[in-house]
Design goal:
The complex is a heterotrimer of chains A (117), B (358) and C (133). Chain A is α+β, with helices and mostly antiparallel strands and 117 residues long. Helices cover 16% and strands 15% of the residues of chain A. Chain A has 3 helices and 5 strands. The N and C termini of chain A lie far apart (82 Å). With 358 residues, chain B is of the alpha+beta class. Chain B has one domain: Cytochrome-c3 Hydrogenase, chain B (Orthogonal Bundle). Chain B contains 13 helices and 8 strands. In chain B, the strands form 3 sheets. In chain B, strands 1-2-3 form a 3-stranded antiparallel β-sheet. In chain B, strands 6-7-8 form a 3-stranded antiparallel β-sheet. In chain B, a hairpin with a 2-residue loop joins strand 6 and strand 7. With 133 residues, chain C is an alpha/beta fold. Chain C has a single domain, classed as 2-Layer Sandwich (Beta Polymerase, domain 2). The longest helix of chain C is centred in the middle third of the chain and has 12 residues. The chains are: A alpha+beta (117), B alpha+beta (358), C alpha/beta (133). Chains B and C meet through strand 3, strand 6, strand 7, strand 8 and helix 11 of B and strand 2 and helix 2 of C.
Chain lengths: 117, 358, 133
C-alpha cells in the first residue's frame, strides 16, 4: 500500500475523474460512430445498404420508396454508409439516447417511376 | 478424511463471465478441478451459413468483447491469404496500432480485475482510470470504444490523420507514466505477492504439454509470441517476447504488466513509421480451399481455420481462442491450492469464456 | 496456398502423435469439418517454434474415432466440443462430457451439422436434428 501513496495524494487534490452525466455530457468525438441519417431526396432505394448490412437491420422497398432502419438491431459498423452509391445515407457522430420502447426509423421517399416496357 | 465436491461458478463474484468448476476438496485443499462450459455458447462459427464472407468480419469482431479488432484482423489475414491479396503497408501499420491499443486496454482491464479479485479495490480503480484514456483513443480514431470495426478484407476502413497521431502520442505519454507509477504496487507489494507468488504453478513442461497459450505460456518461461510471425507490420517493428520463469500467478501478471508497456512502445514505433498510401485493396473473387491464420491476442494465440468452396459463403470457420487452450492447464494449476486462492488463480489465465464458447 | 494437411489413419494417430510430441510439438487445436452426410474430416493442428503441422483424419459418425487426449491431454476440450457440435464419438476420451459440454440434457441435436440425420448415437432423445439453417 505505501507505493500507492503518491497516487492517492494526487487523487485527493485533483478533481474527480468522472463527470456529472447527464447534467454535463461529453461532446462526441468528430469521428465517433452514431446514428444513421438517410436523405429521402437523394436516396434511390437501391437497397445496397440492406444487402451489405451484417446485422440485417435495414429494410428497403424500391416499389414503395421506403427505407427502414432498426436502431436496436444495428451494430453501428458504418458499412452501409460506406457502400451507399449516392452518399444519401450518412453516419453522424451523435449516439442515440437510451429509449423506453423499441422503435424503428422510417424514411418515405418518392419511388422511382417504373420504366415503361 | 472425506472429500467433498464444491461447485465453483458459473456465477461467482470474481468471474466476469460464467464458467463452472467442480472442485473436489479435502478440508480447504483442492484435489481436483474439472471445468464445465456451455453457459454462453452462441454458435457464431455456424453463422457462416447465413452471412457472406465480408459480413462475417463484423461477426467475428463479436467473438470477443475486448480484443475485437484482433479477431477481425486474423480473419481478414486468412481470407487475404486465400484470395492472394496483400493489404497495403499503411493498412498493416494501422492494424498494428489498433491491435496494440487493444492489447493495452485489455491488459489494463485484466490487471484491474486481478487486483479486484485479490480485494485490492483502489488499484483496480486506478488501472481502469488509465484504461479510459485508451478507450478514448479508440473512440476518437475508430469511432467506437471496443468494437472498433476497422478491418475489411484487404485492408482497413478508417484512417488516422496527423492531428490524431499527435493526440495518440500525447495520451500515450500519460498512459505510460501512470502505468509505471503503479508498477511497484503491482509487482512488489507485500499483499499482492502474498496472494500470487507460488500460487497456481504451471511448469514449462506442463505448459507445453497442455497447450497453454499467450501470457500463460510465457509466464512459464516459453518465449513464444505469435507476433514473432511478423504478420501485419510486426515484421518491421522491434520487440522481444516478455518472458517470466515463475509459472505462477505473479509471473502471469508480470508478463501482462510488462506487455502493456511494450505495447505502448510498439504503438509509438508504428506511429513513427506510418507510411503513406492506400488503406485497402479491393477483395475480388471468391475464395476456395483451406487456410489458417494465427495472431497474438492479449490472451494468447488465436487460430482461424477457414474452408471455402468458391461461393461468397464460407464452408467452415473454426476459431480457436486462447482461453480454449488455457482451460486444460487449469486442471493442473488448481490442485493443491487453498480454496481461497482458487478465484485468483482462475482469473490469472485471463478467462474469456464467451470467446471460448463462441 | 500454404495449407497442407498430412493424411493420418485412425490406427496410427496416437503412435504418430507420440512421435510428434517427443519432437517437442505443442497441440494447438483440432477442427471438425463436415464433408458429406455422416462424413467428417478431423484436422489436427500442432505447433513448434511457430511452425505448424496439420494432420487430416477421415471420420464417420458410425464409429468412434481414436482420442488424442491419451497423448495430449489438452485435446479433451476440443474433442468434447466436436462431440457436441457434430455428434462424433471418441474412444478413450480422458475427460468425457458425454455430449453435454455445451448442450443441455434435452437437446438431442448436432447443431453444426448441415445434413439432416435421424439420430445420433447414445442420445436418442429425438427432437429436431436439423440445425443451423
Amino acid at each position: 500500500m505505501p507505493f500507492m501513496l503518491p497516487s492517492i495524494l494526487r487523487n485527493v487534490f485533483s478533481g474527480p475523474a468522472t463527470r456529472p452525466y447527464p447534467a454535463n455530457p461529453r461532446q462526441p468525438f468528430a469521428d465517433a460512430r452514431g446514428e444513421l441519417v438517410n436523405d429521402p431526396e437523394t436516396c434511390i432505394f437501391c437497397s445496397i445498404c440492406a444487402k451489405k448490412c451484417p446485422s440485417q437491420c435495414l429494410a428497403v422497398d424500391k416499389e414503395l420508396g421506403t427505407w427502414e432502419w432498426d436502431p436496436f438491431a444495428c451494430v453501428y459498423c458504418g458499412v452501409c454508409a460506406e457502400a451507399c452509391p449516392t452518399k444519401s445515407l450518412r453516419q453522424t457522430n451523435v449516439r442515440r439516447a437510451v429509449a423506453r420502447d423499441k422503435q424503428s426509423v422510417a424514411v418515405q421517399g418518392q419511388p422511382k417511376p417504373k420504366k415503361s416496357p | 478424511m472425506k472429500t467433498s465436491i464444491l461447485p465453483f461458478g458459473p456465477q461467482h463474484p470474481v468471474l466476469p463471465e460464467p464458467i463452472h468448476l467442480s472442485l473436489t476438496i479435502e478440508n480447504e485443499t483442492v484435489l481436483e478441478a474439472r471445468p464445465a462450459l456451455g453457459y454462453v455458447h452462441r454458435g457464431l462459427e455456424n453463422l457462416v451459413a447465413a452471412r457472406d464472407m465480408h459480413q462475417m468480419v463484423q461477426v467475428v469482431e463479436r467473438v470477443c468483447g475486448i480484443c475485437s479488432m484482433i479477431h477481425a484482423m486474423c480473419y481478414c489475414q486468412a481470407l487475404e491469404e486465400m484470395l492472394d491479396i496483400q493489404a497495403p503497408p499503411r493498412a498493416e501499420y494501422l492494424r498494428v496500432i489498433w491491435s496494440e491499443l487493444h492489447r493495452i486496454h485489455s491488459h489494463l482491464l485484466w490487471l484491474g480485475l486481478f487486483a479486484d479479485a485479490m480485494g485490492f479495490e483502489s488499484l483496480f480503480m486506478q488501472l481502469w482510470k488509465i484504461r479510459e484514456r485508451v478507450m478514448d483513443i479508440n473512440e476518437a480514431t475508430a469511432g467506437n470504444r471496443v468494437i472498433v470495426s476497422v478491418n475489411v478484407v484487404g485492408g482497413v476502413r478508417r484512417d488516422i490523420d496527423e492531428d490524431q497521431v499527435a493526440m495518440i502520442e500525447k495520451e500515450l505519454v500519460t498512459v505510460e507514466r501512470e502505468v509505471k507509477q503503479l508498477s511497484l504496487t503491482l509487482l512488489t507489494d507485500f499483499t499482492v505477492k502474498k496472494r500470487t507468488k507460488g500460487k497456481g504453478v504451471l511448469t514449462r513442461e506442463q505448459a507445453l504439454e497442455l497447450g497453454a497459450a499467450g501470457p500463460t505460456l510465457r509466464g512459464s518461461g516459453v518465449a513464444q509470441d505469435m507476433r514473432q510471425l511478423g504478420y501485419a507490420a510486426f515484421k518491421d517493428l522491434d520487440f522481444e517476447p516478455v518472458v517470466e520463469t515463475g509459472g505462477d500467478s505473479w509471473a502471469r501478471a508480470a508478463v501482462r504488466f510488462k506487455e502493456t508497456l511494450q505495447s505502448v512502445d510498439l504503438v509509438r514505433q508504428a506511429l513513427a513509421g506510418l507510411p503513406q498510401g492506400d488503406l485497402a485493396v479491393k477483395a475480388k473473387g471468391k475464395p476456395e480451399g483451406e487456410a489458417t491464420a494465427r495472431v497474438e491476442q492479449p490472451r494468447g494465440e488465436v487460430l482461424y481455420y477457414i474452408k471455402a468452396n468458391g461461393t461468397k459463403h464460407l464452408d467452415r470457420l473454426r476459431i480457436r481462442t486462447p482461453t480454449f487452450a488455457n482451460i486444460p492447464p487449469l486442471t493442473v494449476m488448481l490442485p493443491g491450492l487453498e480454496l481461497a486462492d482458487v478465484p485468483v488463480v482462475v482469473l490469472s489465465i485471463d478467462p474469456c469464456i464467451s470467446c471460448t464458447e463462441r | 496456398m500454404s495449407f497442407i494437411a498430412t493424411p493420418v489413419t485412425a490406427n496410427n494417430l496416437c503412435k504418430d502423435a507420440q512421435a510428434l510430441k517427443a519432437r517437442g510439438f505443442r497441440f494447438v487445436t483440432m477442427t471438425c469439418v463436415e464433408t458429406g452426410p455422416g462424413e467428417f474430416d478431423l484436422i489436427y493442428h500442432f505447433d513448434k517454434d511457430l511452425d505448424m503441422v496439420h494432420w487430416r483424419l477421415a471420420a464417420t459418425d458410425r464409429e468412434a474415432s481414436p482420442s488424442l487426449s491419451t497423448v495430449y491431454l489438452a485435446a479433451f476440450l476440443a474433442e468434447n466440443e466436436i462431440q457436441d457440435q457434430f455428434g462424433l464419438r471418441f474412444a478413450d476420451l480422458a475427460i468425457d462430457y458425454q455430449g453435454k459440454l455445451y448442450l443441455d440434457e434435452e437437446a438431442g441435436a448436432t447443431p453444426f451439422c448441415r445434413f439432416s440425420r435421424a439420430s445420433i448415437t447414445q442420445t436418442d432423445s429425438g427432437g429436431d436434428t436439423e440445425g443451423g439453417q
